[in-house]
């Protein structure tokens, strides 16, 4: 390990956090990780990282702390309290929260961390599991320019498109907009798939030609096989997209922006979750359209 690179603590080794932390190890960083499941810590150790038994232990000697957990409550749980990041990281450390949470949670975290001499960036990502594995994520950042500049080498090991969007919370606002666009896009693709199949068209051929024109999208490229194979193993769970649609509808209401189509898709995501599909990939919005169209849905 190169001694001149900052020491990194990584909290949260899930579908996104595991491959991302491993990409940092590949880039030469010394990574100490903690997460709730021991098997995930073991995976990090096998990849060349160091395991930690607690948040406090993980962050104690870190120059940079990166968090990647599901939602605002988990960010608050690991950040605050006697065993949290703010009480145990050293003053001057840089905390990069890559979770997708409410913009206000990010603003509050930055303010509270400042009292401890800890700098914060909100840096949520887009690109899903594949983007995390391939290190081609889009990373939308909120915070100060100098902290962003300092974080750049680390972020470049994780993603391809890295943009400072404004002050604290701005990264989360842009991520919320991202989730709105993705959900509406998946829903439109799902409706097209059922329409095409019920019309007797070769679905694979149709999706290929559609993806070559104006209807083409990263969503269609990434999710085409999910639709074709009805493979809904989670890259990004409906449960999490449900959470994100709540963030964007709430944030839009706060600023007085109307989301008429977004509101409908938020309800479709919610209904899919209510039908027990919350653990499936968000491409499973197809199942909702199938049910509405009277098609048999695979168990």
Automatic annotation (TrEMBL):
Please state the Enzyme Commission number of this protein. Answer: 1.1.1.60
**Keyword check for Oxidoreductase:** yes
Q: What class of enzyme is it?
A: oxidoreductase
Name the InterPro entries for this protein.
6-PGluconate_DH-like_C_sf, 6PGD_dom2, 6PGDH_NADP-bd, HIBADH-like_NADP-bd, HIBADH-related, NAD(P)-bd_dom_sf, Tartro_sem_red
* Organism superkingdom: Bacteria
Q: Which family does it belong to?
A: Belongs to the HIBADH-related family.
Q: What is this protein called?
A: 2-hydroxy-3-oxopropionate reductase
What is the species of this protein? Streptomyces sanglieri
């Amino acid at each position: 390990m190169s001694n001149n690179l900052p020491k990194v603590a990584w909290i949260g080794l899930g579908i996104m956090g595991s491959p991302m932390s491993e990409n940092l190890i590949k880039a030469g960083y010394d990574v100490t990780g903690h997460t709730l499941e021991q098997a995930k810590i073991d995976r990090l150790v096998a990849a060349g990282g160091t395991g930690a038994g607690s948040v406090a232990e993980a962050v104690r000697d870190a120059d940079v702390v990166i968090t990647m957990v599901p939602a605002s409550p988990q960010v608050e749980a690991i950040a605050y309290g006697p065993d949290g990041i703010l009480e145990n990281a050293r003053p001057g450390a840089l905390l990069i929260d890559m979770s997708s949470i409410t913009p206000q949670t990010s603003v509050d975290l930055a303010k509270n961390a400042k009292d401890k001499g800890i700098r914060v960036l909100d840096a949520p990502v887009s690109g899903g599991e594949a983007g995390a594995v391939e290190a081609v994520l889009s990373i939308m950042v909120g915070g100060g320019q100098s902290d962003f500049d300092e974080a750049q080498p680390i972020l470049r090991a994780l993603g391809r498109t890295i943009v400072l969007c404004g002050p604290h919370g701005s990264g989360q606002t842009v991520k919320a907009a991202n989730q709105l666009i993705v959900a509406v896009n998946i829903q439109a693709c799902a409706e097209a798939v059922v329409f095409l199949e019920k019309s007797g068209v070769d679905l694979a051929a149709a999706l290929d030609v559609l993806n070559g024109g104006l209807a083409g999208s990263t969503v269609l490229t990434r999710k085409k096989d999910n639709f074709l194979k009805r493979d809904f193993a989670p890259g990004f769970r409906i449960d999490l997209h449900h959470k994100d649609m709540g963030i964007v509808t709430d944030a839009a209401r706060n600023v007085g922006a109307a989301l008429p189509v977004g509101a409908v898709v938020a309800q479709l995501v919610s209904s899919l979750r209510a039908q027990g599909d919350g653990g499936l990939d968000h491409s499973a919005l197809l199942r909702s359209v199938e049910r509405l169209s009277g098609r048999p849905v695979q168990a």
